[in-house]
Write a structure and sequence with these properties.
Elements (H helix, E strand, L loop, with lengths): L2 H10 L3 E10 L5 E11 L5 E2 L1 H11 L2 H16 L2 H4 L4 E6 L1 H4 L2 H14 L6 E5 L7 H13 L3 E7 L5 H7 L4 E4 L1 H6 L5 H15 L3 E4 L5 H9 L4 E2 L10 H11 L1
Parallel strand pairs: 2-4, 4-5, 5-6, 6-7, 7-8, 8-9
Antiparallel strand pairs: 1-2, 1-9, 2-3
Helix pairs in contact: 3-6
The chain binds guanosine-5'-monophosphate (G) (2 copies), manganese (II) ion and sodium ion.
Length: about 250
């Protein structure tokens, strides 16, 4: 069985689920949102991460179905949470191929309707493993944003076209890739790059989410440079939605 056909079978058998990693406001430690991260539990019990299967799904066209499933799972997981917590954001990852499809907008609208949520509850993260057709994606992104959904450029600095994205699209968030967060305080050349990414994002009036924050020193550095948001093991790992909701409600 090739991975591509295993993916299709996994979809039929409902082997996919989501883990949610809190997005934290650095200044207060408050959980202001969560990123939905796709997981695949195969019938033999093996857990496979998206780094392995998303590229295959993108190459074989299964990504459209996977994304559809992700949006259904989010709607099912969050239930009426967003209606009760209107300031909370759910971030979902879309692939380039999704952005080029009109059906994506329909699915996002359905997700919001199912969850009784408003567009401002949703952040769309554009990943850049696959090169985006800018001419096609531009009106889609503009339409999402004019509808009130916010858009983030994910894994900034690692993909094909980070800088051209910033030139071509109006965006709301820039997510600093974990590789750059890791370099903070290491005196490596990459450490300097973090500084410049932050300055550039601020010049462009983008809000910043730093990924992979593991240490207090990294959090201090980011906060000191005006980075508002972070994800990472320093704060919380990705977890099942029920666990996140319980922890969120306990935190008050
Ligand atoms: O959670 P983990 O570190 O394994 O995720 C690895 C990568 O897979 C991340 O960069 C993330 O953006 C991507 N990813 C996770 N979930 C999804 C998803 O639902 N759709 C897409 N397209 N990418 C995802
Ligand atoms: O889509 P994105 O690239 O944001 O996915 C984030 C991935 O990074 C997830 O798979 C998550 O499990 C992983 N991750 C999240 N926080 C940390 C962290 O602090 N350290 C490390 N090493 N990995 C993390
Ligand atoms: Mn992401
Ligand atoms: Na990322």
């Amino acid at each position: 069985l090739s991975l591509a056909s295993a993916l299709r079978q996994g979809l039929r058998r409902n082997e996919f689920f989501l883990a949610y990693q809190p997005i934290v406001e650095l200044a207060t430690g408050r959980w202001v949102g969560a990123e939905a991260l796709l997981r695949w539990r195969r019938s033999n019990g093996e857990l496979i991460g998206p780094d392995l299967f998303i590229p295959v799904a993108e190459r074989t066209g299964t990504i459209t179905k996977l994304t559809e499933r992700v949006l259904e799972l989010v709607a099912r997981d969050v239930g009426d949470f967003l209606a009760r917590n209107p300031a909370f954001h759910i971030a979902v990852n879309l692939s380039a191929a999704d952005l080029n499809l009109p059906v994506t907008r329909t699915l996002l609208d359905k997700l919001l309707a199912d969850a009784g949520a408003t567009p401002s509850n949703l952040i769309v993260e554009m990943t850049e493993r696959a090169l985006l057709d800018i001419a096609t994606a531009k009106p889609v992104i503009a339409s999402l944003r004019s509808g009130g959904i916010e858009v983030a450029v994910d894994d900034f600095g690692t993909g094909y076209s980070s800088l051209s994205y910033l030139e071509s699209f109006e965006l709301d968030f820039l997510k600093i890739d974990r590789a750059f967060t890791e370099a903070i305080g290491t005196r490596s050349p990459t450490d300097q790059v973090v500084h410049h990414i932050i300055a550039m994002a601020q010049t462009m009036k983008l809000r910043i989410i730093a990924e992979g924050v593991e240490t207090e020193a990294q959090a201090e550095y980011l906060l000191g440079r005006g980075v508002q948001f972070a994800q990472g093991w320093r704060f919380a790992r990705a977890m099942p939605w029920s666990e996140l909701r319980a922890a969120f409600e306990q935190r008050g």
